[in-house]
Amino acid sequence: EAVVRYMELPYQRIPKGPVGLLEKATGVAQVPALHLADDRWLTDSTPIIHWLDERFPATPVIPRDPVLAFFSRLIEDYADEWLWRPAMHYRWDYAEGAELQGRILVEEVATDVPLPKALVRHLIKGRQRALFTKGDGVSPETWDHVEKIYLDTLAHLSAILKDRPFLLGERPSLADFGMFGPAFRHFSMDPTSARIMRETAPAVFEWVARVWNARASTTNGPLLEHVPQDWGPILNSIGSGYLPYLCANAQAWSTGQSRFDVTIEGAPYKNIRTAPYRVWCLEELRRHFNALAAPDKHEVQERLEAHGCWEPLWQVEMLSSGIDLDGKLPFAGGGSMTGLIKKEVTKRHWFPVSGAKRRKG
User: Fold this and answer.
1) Residue 189 lies in a domain
2) Is 267 among the domain residues?
3) Is the pLDDT of residue 332 over 60?
4) Calpha distance 140→360 (Å, rounded)
5) Please, how many CA atoms are within 13 Å of residue 20, restricted to the half-sphere of its CB?
6) Could you tell me if residue 106 is inside a domain?
7) Domain ranges, residue 249
8) 299, burial (CB in 10 Å: exposed 0-12, middle 13-18, buried 19+)
9) Into how many domains does the chain fold?
């Protein structure tokens, strides 16, 4: 939505609505989804952003420099897939957040469930924890590491925002919009994570509002010419955390495991769901690298090696997610993306909320 706002495209925001409506139109319960005037639906935020960038070249969000574009895609992928776990954790493992989101889901999504609302809220909270926290590796052994991912992200972003209004210069780019997704709909709105952001990283809180309010007609300054050095801590986190996780997931997928264990930065994650979509994410990173010209490949490789990203990017030799858009747009019902996301049952709800007792177990 922030990209559409930045590009100043006319649109209407519609809540997801009762269970089943979006699924009938797109085949999945995933938001965001764009319904175009010609009755086509676009699903999944990453390919949607790429489609918008191609469709409306006058207001680009992906840097035109290929090296900047590669690292922006890497940052976006990291934010979209690795910050997901702390976002779900702060939302559902803290009582205040779980109660708030439970009420929102009952009012916006489960409106046609023929049960008392209090019971539906209870069932929703149990389901969300089972799928997205307890069922995705969050445990007493990994609790602190999950929260450290968020706290480190706030510190890294705060350092960057000391020098410029956006992550790559004077206007928002793909890296901003990637980080903005979890930062806006989750971290800046869910009670516990929002309090932490306000108290420890007010510059990030301000940046969230700045990205939301940015318009291409007025916020159109230049981007940096090179990948900034202050991206280094984020790239270090990608090399030590996110890419090893992608490798473990890809290895599990290749051997037919539905669940896998992996130790990340000393934290023992157990019984994590294997996700074919995240195999595709690794495939896409490699594809974008392989598409670079030789001098750009050399520059990118040097920077990846400096931050421990190069080896895990190529650690798993053979990748086969089964997802192949073949250059198609992310239209619902087209290609195999829809079916695989449906199998994965990664039903992501980026609902706006508006404050937190800690709940372990």
Assistant:
1) yes
2) yes
3) no
4) 7
5) 4
6) no
7) 2-90+139-344
8) middle
9) 1
